[in-house]
Design a protein that fits this description.
Chain A is α/β, with parallel strands linked by helices. Chain A contains 12 helices and 14 strands. Chain A has 2 domains: 208 residues, Rossmann fold (3-Layer(aba) Sandwich); 59 residues, 2-Layer Sandwich (Alpha-Beta Plaits). The longest helix of chain B has 34 residues. The chains are: A alpha/beta, B mainly alpha.
């Protein structure tokens, strides 16, 4: 069953451009130049119920804008959207009772009170029956390990604890569709892992449809079989993650520390030198050549340390569309 | 309806718990309000040491007016004040997102989420001043007068809230407005003077354009049996008109909402 369908969705923002300095400000006060920024430009996709899909893309790509249209926060400039059969921006209560939005950068938990009080407010808003509320709360508190936290003033919690409470607050009404906008931002690795595990478990347990946006490749790697890559408002890839990484990030970075200095020209034979210092050098090496190259290096030189990392998702996407133009349509009004 | 009553109870309870977290605030606010009231009542007495009437109003009538301003302002600030002050920030920082995504009337949520217990002190003190003023009044207050007063106070609160709400909603269109938001406080200040003091176009303007008259002058007249039925009806019409206007304005503003960057 299709849970979400998006056809030719566009969302343009009007922004004012100002020249720097006082004169620029005065000019812009009198005569404003405005531009349409195409945050989302003609995007189409469908998501089946129960799918866990990742939105990838650099800052300003249009991920959050798309999520906001899907949650009915923004009216689109054009296109058709259906979530669970509803048109989101009509904001019907029956629709709103079936989804939840979690934003890593914004908080819905009342700052001055224990999270429990926010949960009780949400219980009233979503009209959750007492028994169901207690069951869900107990279950989620246990999975998220929040026993000691829910009765402490929210502003005294750590970022990670608060994020977990944000998730709990959003899930008390057991939404069928969950929009997660960078839920792991600013969290340490352990907490990121916890949140990921939880999202996977929620998806499995309730069969919920989940869309996740993130800058972190790891989040998407760990959770999503399918990714949508958005750049400059365009949907540039829709498919499984293996294909993305194989197709667009067919290399890894290898940082090697040697016991004694090694010449750059010698290292260039192993791979492209990205950053060179006599003792520590970073090489870019084709994904499938990594085992041979590392073995060869270890054999040829006295190596103190060898570290292999995946390219950043931003790099992958950038590389994907480094030839692309910014999607500005200049309109002077 | 019942659901919203329960929700409102939950809001009020949370706000009360919140107020308990900051005990000192309530104490400081109370002391400040008591001092302010004393100075205000004293200054009215001093002025009337020099004149018999102002715009036809005697000292006890002026005190009724002063008490009414305190009561109306206290109620509006308790129920809506913190919310109105927070709303502009909610819009500006894009935090309205959470409200808009919930199955709840958005206007109800943003207008009533926080109940401020502090200004209730002002309502209580206003009641005290009113009692004192009534004891000085030559003619006793009738039951009809008292009922009409309650009705007019409710109208006054709704008028003040609607105006405040419209002004803050304008943030949707311009992104930020700091000083215009103070218009409510100017409205309250202006209503401390009976509109009978003014003449001609100014008086008409302060009645129907910027409805200062309905905040305190009209309720006070109602209590003292000085209000014409026409004005009572005008107050009701003004209330209904502003409630509808603010609703339409809010709906329009929501379609303009482009939430701040994530």
């Amino acid at each position: 069953m299709t849970a979400i369908s998006v056809k030719n969705l566009s969302k343009y923002y009007e922004v004012h451009q100002k020249e720097p300095g006082l004169v620029g400000s005065l000019k812009s006060f009198v005569l404003r130049k405005s531009y349409d920024v195409k945050a989302v430009d003609d995007i189409s996709f469908t998501i089946e119920s129960g799918e866990l899909v990742g939105f990838l893309g650099p800052n300003g790509a249009g991920k959050t804008t798309t999520l906001k249209v899907l949650s009915g926060l923004l009216y689109p400039t054009g296109g058709e959207v259906s979530v669970l059969g509803y048109t989101p921006w009509q904001r019907q209560a029956e629709f709103q009772r079936q989804f939840a939005l979690v934003m890593g950068q914004k908080s819905q938990v009342w700052w001055d009170l224990p999270p429990m009080e926010t949960f009780l407010i949400n219980k009233e808003i979503y009209e959750v029956p007492d028994a169901q509320f207690r069951d869900t709360l107990d279950e989620l508190v246990q999975i998220l390990e929040l026993e000691k936290v829910i009765n402490v003033q929210a502003r005294k919690l750590s970022l990670g604890e608060r994020m977990k409470c944000e998730l709990l607050a959003a899930l008390l009404h057991r939404p069928q569709v969950l929009f997660l906008d960078e839920p792991t931002i600013g969290l340490d690795v352990v907490m990121q892992q916890n949140i990921r595990n939880f999202v996977r478990e929620y998806n499995a347990r309730y069969g919920a449809t989940v869309i996740l946006t993130s800058h972190y490749m790891r989040d998407v790697e760990a959770l999503c079989d399918r990714v949508l890559i958005i750049d400059h408002g365009h949907l540039v890839f829709d498919g499984d993650l293996d294909t993305v990484v194989r197709r667009y990030a067919d290399y890894k970075f290898m940082t090697v520390t040697f016991e004694s200095p090694v010449a750059e020209s010698d290292l260039a034979t192993y791979g492209a030198v990205v950053a060179y210092r006599p003792r520590t050098t970073t090489l870019r090496i084709a994904r499938n050549a990594v085992p041979q190259v590392s073995a060869q290096l270890l054999q040829d030189y006295p190596v103190l340390d060898l570290n292999i990392v995946e390219p950043e998702v931003d790099d992958v996407v950038r590389q994907l569309f480094s030839g692309g133009k910014p999607a500005y349509a200049e309109v002077v009004s | 309806m019942q659901r919203y009553a329960r929700l409102y109870l939950a809001f009020a309870k949370n706000s009360f718990l919140n107020a308990l977290e900051y005990r000192l605030s309530f104490t400081v606010w109370s002391i400040a309000t008591i001092c302010y009231t004393a100075v205000y009542v004293a200054s009215v007495q001093i002025i009337f040491g020099h004149v018999q009437t102002i715009g036809g109003w005697r000292v006890e009538q002026m005190l009724v007016l002063a008490a009414t301003v305190m009561i109306v302002d206290g109620i509006v600030e308790s129920i809506f004040g913190e919310n109105m002050n927070a709303l502009s920030g909610l819009i500006n920082r894009g935090e309205l997102d959470f409200v808009l995504s919930k199955p709840v009337n958005t206007r109800f949520y943003v207008s009533t989420r926080k109940f401020d217990w502090d200004p209730l002190v002002q309502v209580v003190l206003g009641g005290g001043v009113l009692r004192y003023a009534l004891s000085l009044l030559a003619e006793p207050v009738t039951w009809i007068g008292a009922l009409l007063y309650l009705g007019m106070v409710v109208c006054a609160c709704l008028i003040a809230y609607s105006l405040w709400f419209i002004i803050i909603s304008a943030t949707f269109f311009v992104g930020r407005l700091n000083n215009v938001a103070h218009l409510y406080y100017n409205l309250i200040e202006a209503s401390r003077v009976p509109t009978d003091v003014f003449r001609g176009a100014l008086r008409l303007g302060l009645t129907f354009l910027l409805p200062v008259a309905f905040i305190a002058t009209v309720p006070s007249q109602a209590l003292m049996g000085l209000l014409s039925p026409t004005f009572a009806l005008a107050a009701c019409a003004m209330t209904a008109g502003l409630l509808i206007l603010s609703h339409l304005f809010w709906q329009l503003a929501l379609t303009k909402y482009s939430s701040a960057s994530s």
